[in-house]
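Researcher: I'm comparing several assemblies side by side, and this is the next one on my list. It has 468 residues spread over two chains. Same procedure as the others: predict the full complex and return the structure.
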Amino acid sequence: MKKLISGILIGAVLFSGYMFTQQVDTATGGEREPSVLSIQQSSFF
Amino acid sequence: MIEIGSFIKLQRTKQEMTQGDLAKGIVSLSYLSKIENLKTEASPEIIQMLCTRLGIQIDNSLDATIQEKCKKWYSMLFEVNDKKDIIATYNEIQNLMDTNLTESLLLFEIHKIRYYLILGDFDEALIKINELNEISGTFDNLHLFYWYKFRGNYCSILTDFSTAIYFYKLAEEKLNKIELEEHEIADLQYTIGVTHSKLRNTLEAIDYSNRALEVFMKQYNFIRCAQCHIILGISYRRIRMYDKAIKNLNLALHLGQLSNKNQIILLTHQNLGHLYSTKGDPKESIKHFQEVIQDDTAQTIDNLNSVAALVREYYNIQDYSNAWKFVEQGRELIRQDSDREPYSKHYYYVINTYNYLLNDEFEKFEKFVIQEFIPYLNKQKDFATLSVYSELLANHYEKFGKYKKASKYYQVANFAYKQITNI
């Protein structure tokens, strides 16, 4: 029981710290910049 | 004026001739070495003999013609052009270069790095970089500008953005020592803007993109303006200035439609989809990703990116049947992608992760994310995605009351955020 409570507490502390930093950005892999080569190759090549 | 020693060295190595082959009966090996490394100035007679052996005329009567052709070709490397035209012009210039001593040679050789990158021949680009590296000590400021810029381009393509920005900054330092047209400066600023965006240096990305945008606007270059607006859209989203982000992305969309450039339109839809996803508007997000997958001209990368995003969106709103549908579509796309592009791997992990979750195969899900996906993201230094999937795993453990494991992966997510935000 003691172990479970301390587990929950650690989780809560970490989660709140995590939520705090999460305010900065919630990025996922869907973002895409255009190419530095500028030419969009495959549509033309 | 081109240094004759560099020219001789370049032509000799191009013809795969050893110093011994070239020097034989003309000069000693050590003297040729001195000529090539600009340690001595040889007599015109010796230069003549060496050039004759290399099959080159010392005649600069065609210099102006070559220069003009080069200028045309260089501009082709920066705008939208047909591959065949770029290659044809390249071959034409190369033939002239092989038989004439011209001042344009070094600049032409340096531009070949960009040429190979555009053709997607990255190995050849690296060979050219290594070849030119040996004579880079003789480059003037203009040569150095392009040398640094294209080396940066090479690093960008290899996704080594920190080294890329190092080279772009070196190129930028040359700007006040050379005379360049405005759009050339703007192209470097755009390139630096994109690279800062990749490195998540948001304020720098905004600053450089705005500077480039100003020039492209003056020149009514809609495609380049749209690219700058996309970077601005991404950057403003990252600092949660959603109105500005939406405004910029809508402008990019409008300019893409105006110039009939599907690549721009599709890229903008993906970024708008992502924006609405992070803004907590799944309906609008799904609408934009759907636009991409319904477009026949979309490339595999566009489709994979959108399908993976749709899986995530539908899963998050608990519309599991649609999430399933797109998992299947994603798996099919990965199967079809026979070339096994490096980016496919990323989507393979995303699709498989959701596949296990949707199948309630939790053990497989945990094992896959811990043993394969997270190590892959760490290796790629893709901290943005790492934060998302370690959070997904932590949430999963929390849901099943496994608090110790949950806290471990919240900690991983926290670490990933710190990497992104440089706390």
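Model: For your comparison table: Chain B has 22 helices and no strands.
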